[in-house]
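Task 17 of the worksheet. Students: predict the tertiary structure of the chain below and write it out as structure tokens. Keep your answer in the requested format; marks are given for formatting as well as content.
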Amino acid sequence: MKQPSSSEAGVNITFLGAAQTVTGSMHLVECNGYRLLLDCGLYQGHRAQAYAINHEFPFDPRSIDAVLLSHAHIDHSGNLPTLVKRGFRGLIYTTAATRDLCALMLADSAHIQESDADYLRRHGKEVAEPLYDLSDVGRTMELFHAVPYRRRILVLPGIEAAFYDAGHILGSAAIMLWLTEHGRTVTLLFTGDVGRPAPVLLRPPDTPPSPAYVISESTYGGKHHQPVGTTMEVLRRLVERAAHERGKLLIPAFSVGRTQSVVYYLNQLYNSGQLPNVSVVVDSPLSTSATHVYRLHPECFSDTVRRAMLADPDPFGFESLRYTRSVEESKALNGRAGPLVIISASGMCESGRILHHLRNTIEDPTTTVLLLGFMAEHTLGRRLADGAESVRIFGEQYRVRARVETLHSLSAHADQEELVQYLSALDKSHVEHVFLVHGEPPAQAPLTERLRELGWRSVTNPSRGETVQV
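Model answer:
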């Protein structure tokens, strides 16, 4: 990693996470003698590798003056308690909805780590101690500072920021920075995760001011999503299959964003009389709590959802749906015969209650596993999506006899053309460089080529640890 000297003028950006990969978003910005982080997410992948990356930072956490957080997803926020545990004492700037979601999600992350370690310990497996506990989460939440959308604030001397709605999940934001050093101001836009032009629940992404430099996500840089109109048809078809075969439909879903979107569509099917008479269970305490937070922030909803709420005030509830919290309720589902729909976290099948449901049903041919969107490398979700004949769950091998389907229309990420559309709203002549992050090389390469074809001056894919001066 390049180490800039104190005599060097200019702003330095070091890409420390989600660089040529999709998890662990974290970028270090150095300006005017201050250091701030854009996101501080958990890296997800092979357990040993992930633990090593998440456990040790490539900097002294005490040297970080502030964090700007794009949104609450764990791959963007999940390592904040480790940062605080290691000595960070600055403020964490984000939107009000993101703060409210992080209070739930970080506590849930600590609980999952402790539960997984306890399970492995009881079964004689090798155990890595949790990265942090609930007390670390409590100290972290004390440092959060909520910022309204589109309001320019002073973060540190010479560093100003504004948050613009990203349309990705509740509270998500692109972050615009004005970085002033030696009388020169550099403008930098960090997109966070960019949502779809017409999200299921939320308002579409804002168009921020045009910057000189852009750090843009590229998760689906090489893909084109299925039409959103296919979502309800796929859900209806799979629920009907479960009803006909008296089987189970497992839907691994992120507790924030994806779960609420699935429930919203199922609610629409129910209201229109198209949902078969099958019990639907959201088996995740975090999903249950996150749905309550969604209910607290209707100002983030799209006009379509607001109009629908005039007739149905609760878009996240219907007669055959119930939410669970207790371990006993979750365990009871494994002994329950189908037909049954279970929506449970985590979305990439790396932790949480979905692992127990998969272990219980993955060898049953009447089970269908519906994967929603992108699955990162080295995750159980990716192995299932790639058609693995057998998978390891909690250290034991299981044959995959369940049917596995993937639905990309529910993705909260913009696809290639939607990313191009988002970036094209900026003044291209003003942008000097686009850095593509939060994407794997096969996704970044076609997006890089597409942007260059459209006349963007400079587009690169920085690697982890790479430093640039702007």
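Marker's comment: The domain at 230-407 is CATH 3.40.50.10890 (Rossmann fold). The chain has a mean pLDDT of 92.
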